[in-house]
Each structure stands twice: as structure tokens, then as C-alpha cells.
Write a structure and sequence with these properties.
4 helices; alpha+beta; Aminopeptidase
Length: 150
């Protein structure tokens, strides 16, 4: 199955919102509908801080990849963080995940991104295997830490 990625815009909110809601439920994120809608709207409204790609046909996407951007001295320039990566379960084991990841990495590289980061649950062995097959590796001696700000 060939990965078709489409850069989503504000007019795609009605297609993106259910995907984000299902993803958050699947990974046990306790976000409210208003919170998800507000954050997704900011991303779809053209912020330079990130982008969201629909996976599959725009009219009926089967998943999404949300990306944020930053800069790293260590990696020598721009980096991207895959904030969310979701493909509906009936389709998720058909090779579309790997194709989607490889395609988005090529798009990011073509736009000057030097490295791509993502986070994955320790217990999600299936995702670990997928990400490894796509060239991602665990960073030894490092953990991602977080502090929420108001």
C-alpha cells in the first residue's frame, strides 16, 4: 500500500478531530474535546511551529502524523518531533505505517530538517520494531523529560 500524505489545513479539522480523539483514547491521553480542538486548530491554521499530514485520501483519511519543529546545536540545525502518529487499527498492520514514516522523513529532509525525533511507550514493542525498521534508534543515556507550563 503506497503512502499518500496530504498537508492538512484548517478546512480539514472535521476529518482530523476524530483521528486525534481516537489516538488520544488509544494511548490513554486524558485530553478534553475542547482542548484537542483548540490545539489542533492552531496546528492546522498555519503555525510555523508544526504541521499535520493526513494519511490516505483527504476525503477519508485513515490516520495522521503531527509534527513540531525546533532547532538543535547538537544535530546541526532544524529538527522535527513526530508528536502524534496514528493509523486506524484495521489498516495499521498493512505496511502503511512504515511507508508513511519514510515518506514524511523524506519531506522533512527535503525542507532542511537534520534529524527527526519521536517518543514511544516503553511497552509498545510493535511500535519499537516499526520505528527501528524505519531507521529510528533509542538514544543511550538519554530520557525525554517534560515540564508543563501554563
Amino acid at each position: 500500500m503506497a503512502a499518500v500524505l496530504t498537508l492538512a489545513g484548517i478546512n480539514d479539522l472535521k476529518r482530523v478531530a476524530p483521528l486525534v480523539a481516537v489516538f488520544h483514547l488509544e494511548v490513554s491521553l486524558t485530553t478534553s474535546d475542547p482542548h484537542r480542538k483548540a490545539a489542533t486548530t492552531k496546528l492546522l491554521d498555519g503555525t510555523p511551529l508544526g504541521a499535520l499530514y493526513l494519511i490516505g485520501p483527504r476525503a477519508a483519511p485513515v490516520g495522521h502524523i503531527a509534527i513540531s519543529h525546533g532547532f538543535s546545536i547538537e544535530f546541526g540545525g532544524a529538527y522535527s518531533l513526530i508528536d502524534e502518529f496514528f493509523i486506524r487499527p484495521p489498516i495499521s498492520s498493512k505496511g502503511l505505517g512504515a511507508e508513511s514514516l519514510l515518506t514524511v522523513c523524506k519531506l522533512l529532509e527535503a525542507n532542511g530538517t537534520r534529524s527527526v525525533h519521536l517518543e514511544v511507550a516503553n511497552a509498545n514493542e510493535t511500535a519499537h520494531q516499526l520505528y527501528s525498521r524505519c531507521g529510528f534508534s533509542l538514544r543511550t543515556n538519554y530520557h525525554l523529560m517534560n515540564k508543563e507550563l501554563n
